Amino acid sequence: MSDINTRRIHIKGVVQGVGFRPFVYSTAKELNITGWVRNSSAGVDIVASGEIKNLDLFIDQIENNPPPLSVIDLFEWFESPPELFSDFNILKSKVIPGGFIPISPDIAICADCQHELFDPGDHRYRYPFINCTNCGPRLTIIKDIPYDRPLTTMASFPMCSVCTSEYSNPTNRRFHAQPIACPDCGPQIWFQKANGDNLAGENGLREARRYLKDGKIIAIKGLGGFHLACDATNPTAVKNLRKRKRRSEKPFALMGFDIGAIEKYCAITNPEKRMILSKEKPIVIVKERPENRLPEQIAPGRHTIGVMLAYTPLHLLLLEPEENFPDLFVMTSGNISDEPIAYINHEGMERLNDIADGFLMHDRDIHIRMDDSVSTVINHKPYFFRRSRGFAPRSIPLQGNKISGLAVGPELKNTFCLTKDEYAFVSHHIGDLKNFETYTAFTESVAHYCKIFRISPQKIACDLHPEYLSTKFAREWSQKNNIPLTFIQHHHAHLASCLADNNYFEDSPVIGFIFDGTGYGTDGNIWGGEILVGNIKESSREMHLAEMPLPGGDHAVYHPNRIALAYLIANHIPLGEKLNPIRSFEKSELDILRKQIKQKINVPLTTSMGRLFDAVASLLDIQQSISYEAQAAIEMEQMITPGFEGYYRFKTTAGIIDIGDVLKEILDDIDQEVNAGIISAKFHNSIVDLVVNAAKSLRSQNEINKVALSGGVWQNLYLLKKTISSLIAEGFSVLYHHHVPANDGGVSLGQAAVLAVNN
Predict the structure, then answer these.
(1) What HEC string does 239-252 produce?
(2) DSSP 102-146
(3) Which domains does the chain have, with CATH numbers?
């Protein structure tokens, strides 16, 4: 007994559903450690007895070499009175009232499972739901914690003797893998034809593949909801999908069986390739190969496309290479434009019936719908456009937080954020709350996250905009639960989001360039071209774009020609008949709009940088009306002439950035028939020049050397990269996003951070 020591260990983080207990068990066996390990709703607890040198090795192995999917946020141990155990065991999970743990995101199929999937000698050969502790569904099937099978949607599939044996064997890769299943006991697939006939199992899979090969459109129930798929190399199939989905021009995402299928059509850098191959397998934005072009209808007006690898066994089986079989597929969200993704069988068949020629279905329920994540790579780090599958609800550190809080986010590209201890749990992508179904998904998701993270918010934060549905929800929640409500200005939340994303919780202020399309300002106007100085706690508006009229308010967002018209009038620029935006109007419409602007009828003021991009795109005749947000600006970025360094110069007076001279210079270049790609490059370069000069001016006034970039305009990768490099060349330290999007998808994190530091 005197040679035996006992230590108690408590671990918090992503340590359930990732093979942590079997790893602890195997390590204990190797080092002659006795005792036990147990999941609880507060983490993982271990009691370990053995010789001191073995205990030291045991603790070192667990803390420093944990399973690949685990994330340790807290690791603590202490000496305990010696205890004797005959063996090392895994105990039944324990529910601790109020306890909570971070939950693993859904993870793409691992290499071991993929090998078994195509091994004719394996028990799970060609089984569409193969998984292990290193991969498979997590958040999408969890109903409650602790993460045990009875609390998931797999509860309705009793394990067979083979699966039970593997599940109970600590040396097996599927030990306590909660979604474990096989052909004998697990979920099944079938293919449903439009006429009501269906084919089960492998026959159904073959029929689905035949449909794809023949140019038809199929709906596939995947990990977090339905996808709509067709042959990406078939222009007619892509055109039909676009028409049926009512998605006129917004790009489609593509999926390939392996990296070779993607590289055939895309020029991929090594960092992009690593992200495509990562365990999360997000959609990654890459450049298309000019020598092997896909149909224009994939991504109209763009030379970049979003690509991803098959990340579930079902996708792999469906896309398996075969002679004369397509090698790249459109794989877009299963919805009508602007609706949330369908995820329930009967709902999917009802909503997608007019789009899909057939349905590849399964009977494993999805508890929470989940869109694909979309990202690119900036300086070897992820840069998100949408953070969802594979990443949510992975926690983000929230230094110094002492409250349980709820930040409900904005109305567009909504996410919400829950906080507890020093964790911020940013939700998966919800979408635009103006749609009733999306708003319902938002309210259901808030309730679910509160449940699985055991969080009862003590405070709630929302956007300053009084008419946002998220703001109205926050008001109702605050009143119903009698908790304080904090209103946070949109662009300050963007600044705070960037700072929290970079774990910058210091009092020292930074210069924030917060450029986006719209945000409710403290003066009641629409902001969006803001230069702030501040920290997470507070900020001041030091500079901004000049206020411009926005005829029709939000409605103008989809009509760049109206924005251009208003900007020309506001800057006293003659409305020549040859100007592109003027030519785009019927005379009667032009007369009405001019009268509306002159008499200020439903013409709010805006300082939006996004709207300035729209106005310039209209002047260049890139788009006069658009079908999706920021389309004109995106297409203007795509046409930039590479390597051109010229620019226009903005003038700033008393903190107001004048845009009139830049518009006049652009019109002069158009008159001189300067190439549109060069004008686009000059305009983008002028924004970079504006940022650098403003940063230098504010640095000289305030001795601030740190800059933060946030807001949807910073999704413009040319602008972002050139601004970062130009600021660094001037000696600035630059903060930009890595864990949440720069767009409104990151606002909830900023709201949560403000709530935390002002507690």
Answers:
(1) HHHHHHHCCCCCCC
(2) --PPPBPPPHHHHHHHT-TTSTTTT-TT--BTTBB-STTTB-SSS
(3) 5-90 (3.30.70.100), 103-187 (3.90.870.30), 189-362 (3.90.870.10), 374-502+744-757 (3.30.420.360), 514-735 (3.30.420.40)
Q: Are 27 and 61 in contact (CB under 8 A)?
A: yes
Q: What residues have CB less than 8 Å from 212, skipping those under 6 apart?
A: 218, 229, 230, 231, 318, 325, 326, 329
What span, in angstroms and rounded, lies between the C-alpha atoms of 605 and 298? 36
At 2 the pLDDT is 56
Q: Which two tokens stand for residue 752?
A: 């949560």
Contact (Cβ atoms closer than 8 angstroms) between residue 438 and residue 432? yes
State the Cα–Cα distance between residues 25 and 34, nearest whole angstrom.
9
Q: Residue 200, Cβ neighbours under 10 Å: how many?
A: 11
756: Cα separation from own chain's centroid: 23
Q: What is the DSSP string of 532-578?
A: EEE-SS-EEEEEEEPPEE-TTGGGGGG-HHHHHHHHHHHTT----TT
Rounded distance, CA 468 to CA 474, Å? 10
DSSP state of 358: E
Burial code of 139-154, b = ≥16 C-beta within 10 A, e = fewer? bbbbbbbbbbbebbbb
Both tokens assigned to 175:
């030990």
CB 175 within 8 A of CB 89: no
Whole-number pLDDT of residue 14: 84
Residues 248-267 pLDDT 10s: 889 999 999 999 999 999 99
Tokens 């009967």 sit on residue: 346
CA 82 to mean position of chain CA atoms: 48
DSSP 152: B
Q: Name the pTM for this structure.
A: 0.93
Contact present, 635 and 541 (Cβ < 8 Å): no
Would you call 91 exposed, middle or buried from its count of C-beta atoms within 10 A (0-12, 13-18, 19+)?
Answer: middle
Low pLDDT (below 50) residues in the chain: 1
Largest CA distance in the chain: 97
Write the DSSP assignment of 429-457 as a string of letters.
P-B-TTSHHHHHHHHHHHHHHHHHTT---
Strands 656-658 and 651-653 come out as: antiparallel
Q: What are phi and psi of 198, to 5 degrees?
A: -140, 150
571 conformational bin, left if phi > 0, alpha if psi -120 to 50, beta if neither? alpha
Q: What does the pLDDT look like over 341-377, one tens digit per residue?
A: 999 999 999 999 999 999 999 999 999 999 999 999 9
Please name the residues in contact with 416: beta carbons below 8 A apart, sequence gap of 6 or more.
Answer: 406, 407, 408, 409, 426, 427, 430, 442, 445, 446, 449, 470, 748
Burial of residue 664 (number of CB atoms within 10 Å: 0-12, 13-18, 19+)? middle
**Residue pair 341/335 in contact by the 8 Å Cβ criterion:** yes
No. of H helices and E strands in the chain?
A: 22, 32
